[in-house]
Amino acid sequence: MTDQQSSKNMKNLNFATRLLHFGSEIDRTTGASSVPIYQASTFHHEDIFNPPQYDYSRSGNPTRQALEDYIALLEGGVRGFAYSSGMAAISSTFMMLSAGDHMIVTEDVYGGTYRLLTSILSRLGIESTFVDMTDLEQVKNALKSNTKAVYMETPSNPTLKITDVAAVTYWAKEHNLITMLDNTFMTPYYQRPIELGVDIILHSATKFLSGHSDVLAGLAVARTDDIANQLKQLQNGLGTVLGPQDSWLLIRGMKTLEARMKQSEISAGKLATWLSERKDITNVFYPGLSDHPGREIHEKQSTGYGAIVSFDVGSGERAKKVLNKVQLPLVAVSLGAVESILSYPAMMSHAAMPLEVRSERGITDGLLRFSVGLEHIDDLLNDLEQALQED
């Protein structure tokens, strides 16, 4: 069987099977049941006139290549790329743009992306307009003569707003715009935007894909060969690559993605319902709730609701009390791990946003973001109950 036939057959397998049988799960040289870690910076040329596939690990490494092929298979793209962090993946991809170009961006985007756009790329002459992408007309009205790209985050971080991916992508293609989407929250288990025509999928693989709070990594997947060639040139030229050890750890973590996401989603749904029934909670954000304004659109483009629940406890003072009283979740930056993580966007993920900008986007001082892990849900609810009690 040829590699092309093997790849085609793998695409026909169910997702859970593809997580374990992705083409590099068995080392062809030794039969080892794990991708080898090629801890090498450079590679010998046996014949100077016929260079080997790999010559220098910035340009390519067998362990990283296995990971890159893995994520491309899961997302349904032509080629994947692994980076030293989620922001390295995003910043490298944004380098497809040039001075004078403009992009349209989800307004309540991750704080690190906001910081990159407003304080770094702006100095390079790359413009950004932030819009509420739940409203397609706002996206359309943001179009300029120099617009080159649309950047989506759905569900958004941290208010979990939903963008109609198919509608935005269809409109973007009419105007020859590159479409990019951060798929960190949903992962390819729940959401595969390339199937809706999105050009580039991005991940902070540190989160759900890794799943164990022990890897810093980013991934990108290209829909077409032309885009893949551009991303490869940028990855190699900027040197924002993921090392072989972390590539191996990420491969190991991704094998249990479906099992982890399934269980965490069940608990997240129970947490969201429990919070929505409390009178002392101002707002609950979760696509699985019946009153979530974007639920219908989300269900058209995703097969599940994910493991992130955001909720507003009413004030910054109360939020800080809750953070100091919980005993089970990590109080930390990040999300998507086997252990639950409770974050405070105003002082953590979105601290780079000025107060007035956060307020405009619904990121209040009382907002908390709960990444539900694999603990028993009853224990998490009991812990949150005692943390919410007023002294």
Describe this structure as you would to a colleague.
By secondary structure, this protein is of the alpha/beta class. It folds into two domains: 3-254, Type I PLP-dependent aspartate aminotransferase-like (Major domain) (Aspartate Aminotransferase, domain 2), CATH 3.40.640; 258-388, Aspartate Aminotransferase, domain 1 (Alpha-Beta Complex). Helices cover 38% and strands 14% of the residues. It has helices at 3-11, 15-20, 62-75, 86-94, 111-120, 136-141, 165-174, 187-190, 225-238, 244-254, 257-276, 295-301, 316-325, 355-360, 377-388; strands spanning 79-83, 102-106, 127-131, 147-153, 178-182, 200-204, 218-222, 283-285, 308-312, 330-331, 341-343, 367-371. The strands form two sheets. The protein has a seven-stranded mixed sheet, sandwiched between helices. A five-stranded mixed sheet has the order 8-9-12-11-10. Strand 2, helix 5 (111-120) and strand 3 form a beta-alpha-beta unit. It is globular and about 75 Å long.
Give the oligomer, counting copies of the same chain as homo and different chains as hetero: single chain
According to CATH, the fold-level topology of the largest domain is: Aspartate Aminotransferase, domain 2
Low-confidence stretches: none
Structural class: alpha/beta
Q: What spatial form do the alpha-carbon principal axes imply?
A: globular
Radius of gyration: 21 Å
Q: What is the domain tally? A: 2
What is the first-to-last residue Cα distance?
A: 68 Å
Write down the CATH class of the largest domain.
Alpha Beta
As a percent range, the share of strand residues is 5-15%
Strand order of the largest sheet: 1-7-6-5-4-2-3
CATH superfamily of the largest domain: Type I PLP-dependent aspartate aminotransferase-like (Major domain)
Enzyme class: lyase
InterPro entries: Cys/Met-Metab_PyrdxlP-dep_enz (IPR000277), Cys_met_metab_PP (IPR054542), PyrdxlP-dep_Trfase (IPR015424), PyrdxlP-dep_Trfase_major (IPR015421), PyrdxlP-dep_Trfase_small (IPR015422)
Protein name: cysteine-S-conjugate beta-lyase
GO molecular function, one term: cysteine-S-conjugate beta-lyase activity
